[in-house]
Amino acid sequence: MLKKYRGFTLIEMVVVLVITVILFAAGVVSVGDFRASMDLTNAVSFLEQDIRYAQRSAMFLSREIDEDWIYGIGVDFRDIDNTGEYHLFKWCAPFESFDPENEIMTSALPGFDPEYNLGVSLDGVANGGLPPGGLREGVCDRTVSELVKIGEYQTYKVPLTSLSLERHENGSFQPSYIVFESMTGRAFVYDANGQLINYDYSKSDDEPTFWGSTSRDVIPLAFRLRRKSAGSGGAWKLVSAAPVSGRITKGDTTIE
């Protein structure tokens, strides 16, 4: 006698199919969250690493043969909000070598002429500010104040498809550059126009007043990041660098 085999009913097959789809969707979401979490961890770590690299490079300055003096090593963050990209650069000085008798080279700020007020235009460049024109390729060999991209060092690109990034701003001040002074490693923060932040522009003394030495709050270079998939309730990760001291921190602290 032939045995009778019981097959699946249509309802049973539909139930199994629905469960399979649900499990697959849950797996896709889990994989997506895992990748976004990895992106967040990498972004925070590489941002900190690249800023520290600029700081160390300034403190242990190494120049090419016949290269002019370098005010400092910096990071250009102007486009990080839009593209996730940022670049390391050298701030070339208009001097062939360091001269301790040169008041500009020994002043309180990089590229600052104590004979003039902070921010005054000198040959098209704000006194104590970064030179205009963006970054160029090459080395510091033209004996002019300019910014030269450090092309041999590949910086990280923040994946803005999976991460939200916010820059710390304070009123009209939007930190966009940080420069670490050669040899000392002191940190200076500038806005997108290359104007120095955290110093009193109205004071006409020989040395501009640092806000940190008064009751005025200083503005650090700081970014916070989180996974887009986490929504508005997701935790932020912070990377910041303090002016003058150059103290670099990362963690869960939010930007107020």
Spell out the blueprint of helices and strands:
Elements: H1 10-59, E1 70-76, H2 80-83, E2 87-92, E3 121-122, E4 125-126, E5 135-136, E6 146-149, E7 163-167, E8 175-181, E9 187-191, E10 221-227, E11 237-241, E12 248-251
Parallel strand pairs: 5-6
Antiparallel strand pairs: 1-2, 1-8, 2-6, 3-4, 7-10, 8-9, 10-11, 11-12
CA radius of gyration is 26 Å
Termini Cα gap = 81 Å
State mean pLDDT (0 to 100 scale).
86
Helix content: 10-25%
Describe the global form: elongated
Summarize the structure.
The chain is an alpha+beta fold and 256 residues long. It contains two helices and twelve strands.
Q: Please, could you describe this protein's structure?
A:
The chain is an alpha+beta fold and 256 residues long. The protein has one domain. The chain is 21% helix and 22% strand. It has two helices and twelve strands. The strands form three sheets. A six-stranded mixed sheet has the order 5-6-2-1-8-9, with helices on one face. It is elongated, with a radius of gyration of 26 Å. The N and C termini lie far apart (81 Å). The model has no long low-confidence stretch (mean pLDDT 86).
Labels describing this entry:
256 residues, single chain, 6-stranded mixed β-sheet
